[in-house]
Write a structure and sequence with these properties.
Length: 428
């Protein structure tokens, strides 16, 4: 059973978090950059570090038919920078020049280069300075660069092969980070301010009082696969650390996080009184569910705000919707038994990769349950990141543009989307 959870793609959890620029940094330029990275992209004419992976299309015989390319979310009026961040062993970044390394037209970045033939006359590679993958590598038919095997344990919904999957740096290192000016407006939905429904926490922060925030969820809530957790450049913190920095900047209050999330968990383990295994800091550990934690390890703990993030694994591992609803309600009631004024955010998960046959299920239905549950309680709200994730995919982004493991974990860009949604909910 636990092996099944591992291959649900929830294996890696948060490791030591690097110091957050904007949260006590001594470098004003880093502070400013962090603020830009977490400002709502839908309210700005500049997109910062949008990630995109260049893919070389291929024909049915495995021949590359065109130079590698990737699509931006908006049509760029001016590209300001295109960068590749490297794995920790090669720490740093590489910048690329328009017209020399790549061309841009109609929302698409295309590598400058020459398609190469192998000894058999097949066109299987591109001579270019840009990082790229082939279409067969993207699908998992050929070995993904830097990975040891095509046998990943994640069957494709499209055929008799397995899609690329890694909890390491291999996917994110091949993603470009593009900053550009644009004049296109976001046509998708945006999160509404719900601070009035979170009166206790918002009042404390407005009054500059220390505010306690509980984070409790699955591996996405442990920080997988943010670059700081992977220990690679640019070492961007997970979404909850970015959220903390944004709240402290907006309200001038000290925000303290207590994160008891467990990689691999569903809401079922979250309410269990029996110890269950999960992943934290890359290590397999044992922990009881939240109601038992509040009687034991957290016996003196009283949060002002709780962010509860389950649903990804509940869908993948077939926890029924009714059972999920019952479990989430038990979490709410155990928190409220400790602090009746605690405000609660139910976090709707991002989507699993539609190509991951066993992982991509009905995650959106679990997010919809959150909305129904919120209607049963005072001062409980929903933030559905999955709704915006769906619209980003519909807007032309590839799943691999926004993921760290290609199954169900965010990369830095998607972690920022988490943060933006949460800050928009709590900061007017």
């Amino acid at each position: 059973m636990f092996k099944k959870k591992l291959f649900a793609g929830i294996a890696c959890a948060a490791a030591a978090i690097f110091a957050l620029a904007g949260c006590g940094s001594n470098n004003p330029s880093e502070d400013t950059m962090t603020e830009k990275l977490i400002q709502n992209f839908w309210q700005s004419d500049t997109m910062y570090d949008e990630t995109v992976i260049l893919v070389a299309p291929m024909d049915g015989e495995g021949n590359i038919t065109a130079l590698p390319q990737g699509r931006l979310l908006f049509a760029a009026d001016e590209i300001l920078s295109v960068k590749q961040y490297f794995h920790a062993d090669n720490a740093g970044e590489k910048s690329f020049e328009q017209g020399v390394d790549y061309t841009y037209a109609d929302g698409v970045i295309t590598a400058v280069g020459t398609i190469q033939e192998d000894l058999d006359g097949k066109k299987t590679s591109v001579d270019t300075t840009m990082p790229y993958i082939t279409e067969r590598q993207y699908l998992g038919k050929d070995l993904f660069p830097g990975c040891a095997t095509t046998s990943t344990g994640i069957p494709s919904s499209d055929g008799a092969w397995e899609i690329p999957y890694t909890e390491g740096y291999q996917i994110v290192q091949l993603q470009l980070s593009v900053t550009y000016k644009h004049s296109g407006g976001w046509q998708g939905s945006t999160p509404a301010y719900q601070g009035d429904a979170l009166p206790h926490a918002i009042a404390k922060m407005k009054n500059k009082q220390d505010t306690e925030v509980l984070i409790f969820g699955d591996s996405i809530s442990t920080g997988s696969n943010s670059s700081s957790v992977l220990k690679i450049h640019p070492n961007l913190p997970p979404w909850y650390e970015l959220m903390k920095a944004g709240l402290e900047k907006a309200y001038g209050a000290k925000v303290t996080l207590t994160n008891k999330s467990m990689g691999g968990w569903t809401s079922r383990e979250a309410v269990s009184d029996n110890p269950g295994n999960g992943w934290v800091g890359g290590q397999l550990v044992s922990q009881v569910g939240l109601p038992a934690l509040l009687k034991g390890e957290l016996a003196e703990y009283s949060p002002d705000l709780a962010v509860i993030g389950f649903g990804m694994n509940d869908a993948t591992l077939d926890v029924g919707l009714n059972n999920y609803a019952s479990n989430i309600r038990k979490l709410i009631e155990s928190i409220r038994a400790r602090n009746a004024e605690c405000d609660i955010i139910l976090l709707g998960t991002m989507l699993a990769n539609p190509q991951a046959k066993n992982q991509y299920k009905n995650q959106t239905e679990y997010s919809a349950i959150n909305n129904k549950i919120a209607g049963l309680y005072e001062n409980v709200v929903c933030v559905d990141v999955g709704a915006m994730h769906r619209e980003l995919l519909d807007g032309g982004k590839k799943y691999m543009d926004m993921t760290g493991n290609n199954v169900n974990h965010p990369n830095d860009f998607m972690a920022r989307i988490y943060c933006m949604n949460l800050l928009a909910t709590m900061v007017k």
